[in-house]
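Troubleshooting: if your tokenizer reports a length mismatch, compare your output against this known-good record of 196 residues.
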Amino acid sequence: SSPSESATATTRRAPAPPPGLTATTQRPRAVEVRWQPGLESNLVTYIVESSDSSTGPFQKLAKVPADQANLVVVDNKVSDGAKRYYRVKAVDRDKMEGAWSEVAAGAAKPPPNAPAALSAEVQGNALVLTWMPPPQPDIRKYSVWKKNQEKWSLVATVDMPTCTIPRRERGQKLTLAVSAVDQNGLESPRSQDITY
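Known-good structure output:
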């Protein structure tokens, strides 16, 4: 019998991990995840996963068409200041999945620090409060709080680190605290309270 012709086979390679994965750290209550397109011409989709830990477990966040102009996903389920971890992989037209990218860390913008050094001075029948603003440059207003028994209620909103609070009766004791609100509406914890 004559020798058979030799057959050749080529093994298709799985898509490479997508390059350039980044995640933002200063968006309020969200993280924006971006990456660069894979080099393969036959890619159909990208799968994006997220986790609370850099080592997982990861959960599917989104499936993005490979022909989308901007390869970006916004994770809107992130609480203020929370850190999240992301990875992405490509899938080709034959449904072959590539390896995961490197993990990128992102975080939602944290709320501002609490105002510090709250002090009060009696002027006539009023208290004049002053405090140190937090270090964040985008503070837009301050909320002044009064404590009645165990419940806090808002008594004033001001845009400078001072506020005058009238007292109904001379000698009436007031317990007060202040919080800071940034340009995105994120609010700091309350300052240490003072009773005056």
